Amino acid sequence: MDPTPFVLVLEYLGVVAFAISGALLAEHKRMDLVGVVVFATVVSVGGGTIRDILLGQLPVFWIDDPIFIVVGAMTALITLPLAKSGTIDLLRRFRIISLADAAGLAAFTVLGTSRALEVGASGLAAISVGMASGIGGGVVRDVLASRVPEALSDGRLYATAALMGALTYVVLLELGLSEFVTVWAAIAVIIGIRVLSIGFGVRVPTVTIPEEKLGSRS
After folding, report:
1. I need a labelling partner for 124 at 20 to 30 A (CA). Which of 16, 33, 117, 134 fits?
2. Domain that holds residue 21
3. Phi-psi region of 30 (alpha: psi -120 to 50; beta: other; left: phi over 0)
4. Closest Cα to residue 72, out of 98, 44, 46, 34?
5. Running along the chain, 218 residues long, what does each successive block of 10 average in pLDDT?
């Protein structure tokens, strides 16, 4: 499926959202200007890169269309002065960055799932690729920053949203619904779940094992 113009816009929005989060974390880690730009750019295309590698679609998307790299780098350069001026804090207060990230998560997940099905992957494999594409940018960011990936550890319905969106896409497609309906239903599910988490604090229970118990098993 070639992405519709709106889904393509969401994909660019996701690149921007991940670039912003990467730039802010790099600045927090006190990287220099080059480090911030490189770090944010890698994060911004991380999910799509994982998707293309899993599907064997080489060269990866940002080599075929370098504008994604330009968007990521320019976003990082714009983010730094905005962060210092306090504008980023204002956007966070009104949850704009989180909502943009939710839109990007939706687009990456749906496109990843769709492209996996196009190359003949099973439904389960397509769901896995869609999840990897959706959460990949955040996971790459946190791993490079030596942090436990937030998408998998904080219970904020991030990986859960990607899972449910990819599942919705595959199930509705199997039921014979049109491509238009499946795409928009999956996007709505992902964004809806993220809104529940962002706006209403809905969480997934976390698993905690006392360190003394872990030590006793070694």
Report:
1. 16
2. 5-217
3. left
4. 44
5. 66 83 85 93 92 92 92 93 78 71 86 92 96 90 84 80 96 93 93 88 72 57
